[in-house]
Hints:
Layout: E1 15-19, E2 30-33, E3 39-41, E4 49-50, E5 68-72, E6 77-83, E7 91-99, E8 102-105, E9 109-112, E10 116-124, E11 129-136, E12 142-150, E13 156-158, E14 162-176, E15 181-188, E16 194-203, E17 206-209, E18 213-216, E19 226-231, E20 236-243, E21 249-258, E22 261-264, E23 268-274, E24 278-283, E25 288-295, E26 301-310, E27 313-316, E28 327-335, E29 340-347, E30 353-362, E31 365-368, E32 372-375, E33 378-387, E34 392-399, E35 406-412, E36 423-427, E37 436-441, E38 445-446, E39 458-461, E40 467-468, E41 476-483, E42 486-489
Antiparallel strand pairs: 1-37, 2-3, 2-36, 4-35, 5-6, 6-7, 7-8, 7-9, 10-11, 11-12, 12-13, 12-14, 14-15, 15-16, 16-17, 16-18, 19-20, 20-21, 21-22, 21-23, 24-25, 25-26, 26-27, 28-29, 29-30, 30-31, 30-32, 33-34, 34-35, 36-37, 38-42, 39-40, 39-41, 41-42
Amino acid sequence: MTNLSDLFPAGAGKQVSFVADGAISAAGKPVVLTAAGKVAPVGMTGPPEVSGQTTPSGTEPVSGSNSGMTYDSYRNRLLIAFTEQAWPDSGRCVSGAISGTTATYGTAINFSSNNVERESACFDSDNNVSLLSFRDQVTSDNLKVVCITMDVSGGLTAGTIVDSGDSTAASALTYDTTNNVAVVAYQASSSSHQGTCRVVSISGTTPSLGAAANFNTGGVAYFDGQSIAFDSNAGKFVVTYGDATNSVYGTAVVGTVSGTTITYGTPVVFKSDAVYTSCITFDSNANKMVIAFIDQNDGESVNSIVGTVSGTAISFGSVSAEIAAKGEAFGIAFDSALNKVVLSYVERTTSDKGEVAVGTVSGTSITWTTPVEFYSALYSGESMAYNVSSANCLVAYRESTGSFYLKANVITTAGTNLTAANFIGISDAAILDTASGNVTIKGGIAATGLTSLTPGSDYYAQGDGTISTVSTGSAVKIGKAMSATSINLEYQS
């Protein structure tokens, strides 16, 4: 038996006793029917899954500098920015769509014909355009920004490039959904590599830059020294960097936007070791910042830490267990369907292979799955973004063999045992493994162990075993809330 219809006719039955195949932790948990006629708790089945490699940019070799990626939530497509390996090394971008675990791409366009590198990207959800920042080596390494417009089929149009007038080594972008502006963080190379941020306002498809606001005047570690992410719960952004005036210690600072002005809280050291490379993302389920970083004083190991923003301050838990003994380059994203952090990096211990791991935040700590290889000969240039409509990530990178093409893999955060066919109901109590207990099946009203529901709203079982109103990804619709503590479970054969 693999379907409820094998047991009961439509509309029949409410509470039914089953044997548990795996412990069910509490009442109010969604369960699935196994082939043996038992019930199992809904949950994830293993580490991240990697799809086959694809080539987003056609036959164009790319340089080793960083690529940038963002998710266009209006068109449900990804935008990848990269540098074509030619002279000049022109800036290019291409759109990508994910269906299931398959990625397809549009036609790449130039956003700059100059020699550019170190692209970063974010999406402006108010103007429905993507914003790119990059270093232009033709014009004194100046930081520049440009808007990219995407049509429904993935066709791209580049707007007018705006020059900041500041030279830079690298930059990073985030979008402030509270103030409806982007923020770019960069190293002002012309000013002793001072750590700097600017507000980027967009009118239509034209960006404009606010005044420079320094978060560090003594210098930020070179290359990928800073990263940035927006905390939508606090309404603030956080910048991470290696502080060149303090032994390049890993440091974070909270920034607040008001109009086109930026102010900062007090910088906080999150790791008292040299940190030249870091990346950051916001876990909107836990309302925490997750920072991954390379610890130069520990053999260039890959580590992480969880931060909590309160007002203009940020505090940290303890550094997590080591993810990899030696690494380089990062891509990071938050899977909002499964509430997981997805991290990609170059594993440098034995060979330059690309690996991905999945992290779960609990309180002020994070635990990671065993890393999974997604490419055996990776060079650099990693970027990653989460595709909400398909509920998985795309990681892009430069291969280190062949013609140094830009490659990409779809990353499914984890498999789940949940399907629309095998969902059977909600547990009425905790059930020990191999013990018997009652389940309210489809067609009945589950009213045990459920709290804080919104009457009249549709509810979905998520792939990780939680219940919410989120309908994307692996979610399966289970019914409609009748009250704050009950759900009318829909019968489906």
